[in-house]
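S., here's the first fold you wanted:
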Amino acid sequence: MPTRIAEAQWTGTLSKGKGNVITGSGLTRGDYSFASRFESGSGTNPEELLGAAHAACFSMAFAMIVEQAGFTPEKIHTVARVTIEKGAGGFSITGIVLQTEAKIKNIDEKTFQEKALEAKNGCPVSRALASTPISVRATLLK
């Protein structure tokens, strides 16, 4: 299996510095700063990038799991909400909510919810983040 690469560079102090990130493919790149991470400044941040990776991973895992169960996924759209909070030991990612909507023919609600939970638990990004509370809110589209 391949090893994926991403890079980040930071220049300056925490509060006044700035940085940029780029994925190995060069398709994803962005600037980030203290303001884009902890305030409402423009640019990206590590939590947003982590959320994008998690949403993508979960969506692919969900597609695989429902297909293996004999269903055909038509569309899966997932939003990852990553929360960062300051605690006694510093900043921590305190939770991730995967909010997904999917159109899958002939699947019943109970099976749909079971497969969504299975995808959340089995997705490699979820497993890498096992120490973080992760929940899934799944809506079956008709």
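And the second, which I think is the more interesting of the pair:
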Amino acid sequence: MNSIFIQDLKVKTKLGVPDWERLLPQSVLIDIEIALPNHANFNSDNIQDTIDYGEVCAMVERLLGEQTFKLVETMAEQICQHILQDFKAPWVRIKISKPNILRSAKAVGVIMERGQRPQA
């Protein structure tokens, strides 16, 4: 399997179960791995033959700027579905971390995989 990845994408969003937590935007850190739908980009050197990670980042930033979420799980699901549908990715893995929310933990969050993971 060939994939692209985005590591530690920092995005401000309104997220949290208690109302007070959603009053002001907070930072989340997002790691995304996306399986490439084909191998054309390895020979063509053409951005049209791959998934543009700049466009993926812009989509995530736009989505998280427009919506408010109670659960990080819902946020992750929506990002995954956009990547699978909008970018025609066969598989995506996402990790979203909420840093410094709990005093006793550096971060909390969710890891999620969606789609069909291509064989190596």
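Why I say that: The CA atoms of residues 34 and 91 lie 6 Å apart. The longest strand covers residues 3-15.

Talk tomorrow,
H.
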